[in-house]
Amino acid sequence: MSVIPVPKSLPHDSAWTHVTGKSEFIDDRPRLRNELVVGLVYSDRAHAKLKKIDFSQALRCEGIEGVFSASDFSHNIWGTIFQDQPLLADQRVHYVGEVILVIAAQTQTQIDAAKRKIKIEYEDLSPILSIQQAIREQSFIAPERKIERGDVDFGMAASDRKLEGHLVIQGAEHFYLESQAAVVYPCDNGSLEIHCSVQHPTEVQHVVSHGLGLTSKDVVVIVKRMGGGFGGKESQGAPIAAYAALVAHKLGRPARLILNKDDDMIMTGKRNPFEIDYKVGFNRDGQIIALDAQLFSDGGAYADLSTSIMERAMLHCDNAYYIPHMRVRGRVCKTHFHPHTAFRGFGGPKGVLMIERIMEEIAFHLGVDALQVRKMNCYREGFDITHYGQKVENNRLPELLHECDEKADYFLRRREIEEFNKTSLRTGGQTLRGLSLTAVKFGISFTTRFLNQGNALINVYRDGSVQVSTGATEMGQGVYARIAQLVSEELGVDTKWIQVMPTSTEKNANTSPTAASSGTDINGAAASLACQQIKARLSELFIQLQKRPLERWASKTAGLGTEPEINVETHVPMQDIFQPAEFFSIHFENGEVFDPKNPTFRISFKDLCNEAYLNRISLCEYAHYKIPNLSFNKITGQVAPLNDEKMGGAFLYFTQGAAASEVSINRDTGEVKVLRTDILMDLGRPVNYALDVGQISGAFVQGMGWMTTENLFYSSTGKLLSHSPSTYKIPSVHDTPRDFRIHLIENNGNYSNLRGTKAVGEPPLLLSVSVWTAILDAIRSTRTDAFPDLVVPATAERVLEALTPGGLDVALKQLMN
């Protein structure tokens, strides 16, 4: 296996404006003279009846232009999958942070004063504040789901060894730098123009138009860029935009709603907490025969995306491993917390955490190295069908595990770490070390089939410059830069001639969210297809221009009308998007168009575009793309045949990788330091190497924070207490691996996707599981009796508790002495 050499890569399109502070975000938009500030009043109770709401005194406050309640929306219910959530609470509140009233004023200070005048009387009801309580009270969202392959009961009976366990995985905060934000401008025709920080402009368009009794044509949603999203702006930005739109629509004035960090964290949902029960049967060599898993998630008060997140978790319970007999059941619990939502990796990390813990536990039970167990169970030829029936095509997992093992000097360091820990335990040393190597196999596509579509509009101008509009939203990941590079390669012009426009529902309708790591796959493919149509017409024009003397070209004669036009009727079928298209053997390279058979005759792309315009040949094109070969039956939990010869898939392909992480844990304080991480990933043929490596490092560190320090604290009444940077610990530069090595392997065999690329947005986050399993490895060096229980995140307190027989109280007493 060879590693891709580091190529020269184009920079992120907004890199220089980010560094210089010139990048415009929502609250940077200039304020208009008659613009209103919007504020929200939300519940401070987790579950209560609304007995009385009195805002009459607030309306008398200086600068207050209006206070709005549930009755002011034409339709007050919304939801991404199930229509179950009110835009504004009516009669009851179901979580702390649920919005009850919307206030419009001239300044934020006036809103703060008006809030103090509002009187809300509650009748408290008993809340459900844990997964276990929800299970006891049978409080669920949607029926149980099941995915099953083989005969689990038979497999368990046939297994030499059996283990069972319970895994607790807490949630995490998205902590995007730009909070939820929207500015809405009422237009003179009764329509609304909305600028907001969201991943799904079409959903905002739908929620706003439905809520206000308008049609989609009356609402234009524009997203220039976001200051981070990570899934937290896939669905939950829609009601924020709706509140500002309500004010703009009712009062006929521009309205701005920008949440501060505290309110944003209190109001918005997190990564779904999970609790997982599992039983696993295996033989004396560590080969897994059967797995039976029951997954419960905390969906919060309303459905949001939690059922799809659960489905993704169930689909990834195998991760990189073939398990012949497997049953996975999933249920979403309804509690009285903010509705939890999408987060980078969706539900995938929960399933991966479970199976990777199982790998460590089997190794502990057998007294062997966990990497040995992983290699034995890894998907390989002949054992490459998932529990939902999809074949793992282009499988590089065995090679990745082997290559990562070698690059990380895994077994050499394993021996050194074992010796270090023995010495530390014998001499009373302060630290212990752990090492773990985990893999990832992440399915790329939405599991809801109709979301796997996108469209693009390409406008080429007479001067050869190009505007590109797609449904992809830029949240810092570089999707604009990637799409610009794809268009550049297709048209053979430098990216300085290409401008990717802000995402707008008036240019690209019915778009899918920029999520599921598929932003470039879907929208880049659509842009490439649109370019191909223009390229085909220009190629035919070029051929005809070769036959006509220069003095008879339209650029010389069109004003006089002395020459007949060149007619071009070419409309080509969808081409192979694995590489740039070619028509009539005409090449588009370095800003020039030529025929290799007659290379001396060349026309600049700019001049050819001008000739096309003067001959009334269209330089604009729209294209639609849908991901092919998807066929997953959500009822049966299995992929279905596309026809008599070919099976479909839940995913178009799998992004794969491996990571080896070494940690040091302090026996006195429980502090964790990541000493070294080696990451090896298969991203096919990267569109932009540097951006991909940036995504890998960012995703890994974000996941590492969830694995270790990012602990959400709630009060006994359901209020989030850790709602600021002072109480919620995201990773800093000091927390990143001291030695951080990232390599991409060469893989030209991925023929299923655009340019042979593989998505990179979410998969690397799952490799951060290697940090958590490395912590387990360090802790288990102190154990001979039982495998340690460790909640995610493995905070210093939890590590200390796991290290000390008798628990945290004993550890603290020892530390004090």
- State the secondary-structure class: alpha+beta
Average the pLDDT over all residues and give the rounded result.
Answer: 96
What's the number of helices? 22
CATH A-level architecture of the largest domain: 2-Layer Sandwich
What does this structure look like?
This protein has 817 residues and is α+β, with helices and mostly antiparallel strands. It has three domains: 17-127 and 174-267, Aldehyde Oxidoreductase, domain 3; 274-447 and 648-816, Aldehyde Oxidoreductase, domain 4, CATH 3.30.365.10; 453-626, Aldehyde oxidase/xanthine dehydrogenase, molybdopterin binding domain (Aldehyde Oxidoreductase, domain 4), CATH 3.30.365. Helices cover 29% and strands 24% of the residues. An eight-stranded mixed beta sheet has the order 3-7-1-14-11-12-13-22, sandwiched between helices. Helix 18 links the parallel strand 30 (672-682) and strand 31. Helix 10 runs parallel beside helix 20 (769-780), helix 14 runs parallel beside helix 15 (519-546) and helix 21 packs across helix 22. The longest helix has 28 residues, at 519-546. The protein is globular and about 95 Å long. The chain starts with 14 loop residues before the first helix and ends with a helix.
